[in-house]
Design goal:
With 154 residues, the protein is of the alpha+beta class. It is built from 3 helices and 7 strands; from the N terminus they run βαβββαβαββ. It has a 7-stranded mixed beta sheet, sandwiched between helices.
Length: 154
Amino acid sequence: MRIERDDPSRPDVARLLAEHLTDMHAASPAESVHALDHTELVDPAITFWSVRDETTLLGCGALRELSAAEGEIKSMRTAEVARSRGVASSLLMHLVDQAGQRGYRRLFLETGTQPFFAPARRLYQRHGFAECLPFGDYRLDPNSVFMSLDLHKS
């Protein structure tokens, strides 16, 4: 398994991100879906990575710079065929490490409140993330859970 910077418009990645958006819209009301499609992930403030085993796409994730001291995890997704293989944990640890290398003091994320998102919330909690108030442009939303990690403690 290797994690490398990648192009979110690469065909297999774009398909995985489209699947991600479909699931987000199936699980949450449209106004509570904050996932980005592959065209939005090319923003210069966002660095995108994929996880591959040989040539098979296993997952993806991105890091958005909010400020010189803070970042946000975006578009974490594990391919169906790769679930329960440690892909999400490996990618999350990579993103946390990258945030630390950038000098961020805090790392944020937003995920859903619905049962569909329970495995993601457990993953983030296992890695030290705790619920917090909305950050950036987010607002309180009964369909969103906001989480943060103090990188000085991790």
